[in-house]
């Protein structure tokens, strides 16, 4: 599936200065109840869309919950924090009998040329979502580690996912953590990233904790967990090269907050991130991804 060409992103409007803020040339949200620190501009939408094919390759598909048959026959799926919407668009094309909805706070949702079975709405999951209880057979969420504090996972997001899932339906999450490397600059950047995230109540290793958070709810009859260690860099193949690009892009998209938090000038930050890329090809650099699927009790 191609990236973004047929999309028109939300254009600047009067009042955008209230909704968004520009820092070091990148656009960020301005919501008071969200800790999300990654840019929400076209460059970020491109980064998210570009990683889609590599994710399919790494995980052998777009989901692991056993909902294939239901998708063929016709059901409803929601993707929370859908970003550029590419996951929804891909599935909507594969399963024309099913209906898909993507929600996100960022104004990067696709608005044109949508298939009739895909819909996108700008919502904040932390405010609760305007969908009825038990209305989806698959409630999906991916790469929200930088968006949801551990308390918000427990008190808002997981309960909301459970509310939206049908009895015997599935909720599924895929998360990554911070990079680990032998490179000294990469270590410094990863440490700064860790300090910054924890200062906001965000747990960089939440992916590993999600099965426990799911178990604590007592809402599931079955929980499936998978874990992958992803080596980064060209020398490990195409998906590893894309994973590195995705990660480096994430660091670039976080510049507005991370450069300030590291107390470095924006141009010095760019040079540090360049070095992280170079170190990844030289030393062992990896991150983890965690996928969890849970079946809601009947
Ligand atoms: C790293 S991106 C991942 C996007 C998409 N899931 C993917 O895998 O490509 C995180 C997304 O979560 C969205 N997000 C952050 N906080 C949110 C919130 N409170 N409610 C809804 N979406 C949110 C961001 O706008 C961003 O698009």
TrEMBL record:
InterPro entries: Methyltransf_25, SAM-dependent_MTases_sf. PANTHER family: METHYLTRANSFERASE, METHYLTRANSFERASE DOMAIN-CONTAINING PROTEIN-RELATED. Pfam families: Methyltransf_25 (PF13649). This is 9906_t:CDS:1. The lineage of its organism: Eukaryota, Fungi, Fungi incertae sedis, Mucoromycota, Glomeromycotina. It comes from Ambispora leptoticha. Residues 77-169 form the Methyltransferase domain.
């Amino acid at each position: 599936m191609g990236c973004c060409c047929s999309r028109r992103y939300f254009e600047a409007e009067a009042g955008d200065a209230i909704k968004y803020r520009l820092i070091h040339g990148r656009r960020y949200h301005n919501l008071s109840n969200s800790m999300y620190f990654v840019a929400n501009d076209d460059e970020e939408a491109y980064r998210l869309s570009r990683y889609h094919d590599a994710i399919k390759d790494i995980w052998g598909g777009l989901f692991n919950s056993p909902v294939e048959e239901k998708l063929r026959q016709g059901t409803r799926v929601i993707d929370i924090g859908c970003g550029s919407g590419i996951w929804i668009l891909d599935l909507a094309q594969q399963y024309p009998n099913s209906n898909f909805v993507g929600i996100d706070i960022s104004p990067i949702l696709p608005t044109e040329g949508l298939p009739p079975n895909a819909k996108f709405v700008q919502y904040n999951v932390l405010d609760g979502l305007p969908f009825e209880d038990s209305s989806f057979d698959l409630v999906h969420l991916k790469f929200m580690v930088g968006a949801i504090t551990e308390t918000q996972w427990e008190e808002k997001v997981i309960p909301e996912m459970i509310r939206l899932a049908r009895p015997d339906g599935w909720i599924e999450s895929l998360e990554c953590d911070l990079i680990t490397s032998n490179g000294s600059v990469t270590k410094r950047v990863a440490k700064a990233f860790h300090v910054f995230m924890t200062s906001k109540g965000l747990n960089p290793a939440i992916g590993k904790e999600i099965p426990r958070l799911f178990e604590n709810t007592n809402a599931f009859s079955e929980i499936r967990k998978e874990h992958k260690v992803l080596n980064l860099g060209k020398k490990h193949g195409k998906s590893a090269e894309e994973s590195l690009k995705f990660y480096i892009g994430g660091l670039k998209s976080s510049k507005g907050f991370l450069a300030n938090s590291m107390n470095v000038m924006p141009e010095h930050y760019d040079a540090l991130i360049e070095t992280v890329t170079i170190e990844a090809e030289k030393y062992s650099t990896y991150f983890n991804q965690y996928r969890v699927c849970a079946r809601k009790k009947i």
